[in-house]
Amino acid sequence: MHAPTPRPRRLGLTGKLFVAMLIVNLLLIGAMALGAHLSFQYGFLGYLKQQETQRLEASVVPLANAYREHGSWEFVQQNRLLWHEIMRPYDLDARAAAGSAPLPSEPVSVLIGTNTRLTLLDANRKYVFGNPSYTARSPSRRIVVDGKTVGWVLMVPFERATEAGDLRFQESQKGASWAIALAAGVLAILVTLWLARALASPLRRIARATHALAGGHLAVRVPTESGGDIGQLETDFNHLAQTLESNERMRSALVADISHELRTPLAVMSGEIEAIEVGVRPVSLEAVQSLGAEVKRLSRLVDDLYDLSLADVGALRYHHEEIDLAETLRDTLRKSARRLAGAGIGQHVALPERALWVRGDERRLQQVFANILENAMRYAVHCADAHADVFVSARQDATHVQIDFADSGPGVPEPLLAALFERFYRVEASRSRSTGGAGLGLPICRGIVEAHDGTIVAARAPQGGLLISIRLPRIAEPG
Questions:
Q1: Which of 21, 86, 144, 223 is the most exposed place for a label (fewest CB within 10 A)?
Q2: CA-based Rg of the chain, rounded to a whole angstrom?
Q3: How far, in Å, CA of 463 to CA of 386, rounded?
Q4: pLDDT at residue number 350
């Protein structure tokens, strides 16, 4: 078998950020260099062209004067030093006083080599003296003496010239440009490397923490050291990890509670059946009733779990209609009266005579009321040494209908009130399954009430026990 080909190692986050930002910086440096080059070509060189045009025009007067003095151009060919003397720039202050355009300064003239790029032609445009590399398209000016054209002076464009000054300037500009580009490139690399590490460091921490979280380490957290969006990402990650850890604890507790709740009635049923099989307990009505009670308890637990799971995903079915909540509550109290009386619990009902109209599922709301009353009855049975009463009242305001269930039992400590609506929660773990229930009644009530756009809360009752308050949106009386 052939060994698997190793996959090429990909750039990490720091490397990718470094390459991306370095490319951007180099592109910016290149754009700046191009801009400087274009500025030199069309700005500075344009300025030089303007200066050489002024120099060309300024050379006409001294050449005309020299021709008038000598009568021909032969003096230039015989004495070359006279050419340079004639072409020497005039004093700027003197020309300014005479009202003439000022000549370019001596350094600029030397730099662009204007004196060495002038060409003298006679009246027939034949070469006399000067730079011989002129063309028919070279800028020219007419030399006139006493109304007669005696010659032409031309300027060879500096793009065609190769004077030392021009070459030195170009070389100096190239050297300076390369030095600036090199320094900018090194600075860009250093700054980019620092920025890449600074930006990638918190992201690497989050990536490592995410990998650990995906591996099941739910206690992992990242330090919130950054600001802005990355800091918000760190905070959100920690919140996500905390939520996952909390959900995992709830899931484990849920599985353990369900297993415990199912094991108890199954153990009772298994013991009853085994006792009947070995003849310890005869098959009697009492044994059948005992098995039937455990089956009902199992059935009720399964039904509660099913309702709770449907409520969690919003799939619990509701048939909403306009109902009189006061009448629904009276009906539930009538059905529960016998069981409450058998448990020694007194009823104190204070309902208004007029209807309390809401829109909801009457069967589900009756389930809520019955669960609350069942919860009060079971707690009273567990506390048999204390007399308990249930107080049911209802009222309405402009927007809501409120129903209160209160009892006079021992009550629930303040810190435990918020936990009453958690599944499988019981205030006293010592309560037996026969009297304590599975701890699913109030969580189911909360799901049903919230599905009706209402709220359900627990508080200390004025009578000393537990107060459960339900608020549902009120509707107008049906016409």
A1: 223
A2: 51
A3: 13
A4: 92
**What does the block give as tokens for 293?**
């009670």
- Calculate what percentage of the chain has a pLDDT beyond 70: 74
Residue with the bigger pLDDT between 261 and 125: it is: 125
Last residue of a domain, one of 288, 310, 332: 310
- Structural domain boundaries, residue 244: 228-310
Pick the closest to residue 361 from 281, 439, 307, 305 (CA basis).
307
CA distance linking residue 437 with residue 301, whole number of Å: 9
Summarize pLDDT for 391-420 with one digit per residue, the tens. 999 999 999 999 999 988 777 777 777 778
Those residues with Cβ within 8 angstroms of residue 111's Cβ, 6 or more apart along the chain or in another chain: 165, 166, 169
How many H helices and E strands in the chain?
Answer: 14, 11
Q: At 464, is the secondary structure helix, strand, or coil? A: coil
Rounded to the nearest angstrom, the gap between the alpha carbon of residue 402 and the centroid of all alpha carbons in its chain is 42
Domain count, the chain: 3
Task: With CA atoms as reference, report the closest residue to 33 among 235, 185, 241, 181.
Answer: 181
Number of CB atoms found within 10 A of residue 475's CB: 14
In a domain, 199, yes or no: no
Rounded Cα gap, residues 466 and 378, in angstroms: 13
Question: Under a CB-based contact definition with an 8 Å cutoff, are residues 423 and 443 in contact?
Answer: yes
What tens digit of pLDDT does each residue of 165-220 get? 555 666 666 677 777 777 877 887 787 777 777 777 777 788 888 888 888 888 88
Least confident of 17-31, 288-302, 316-330: 17-31
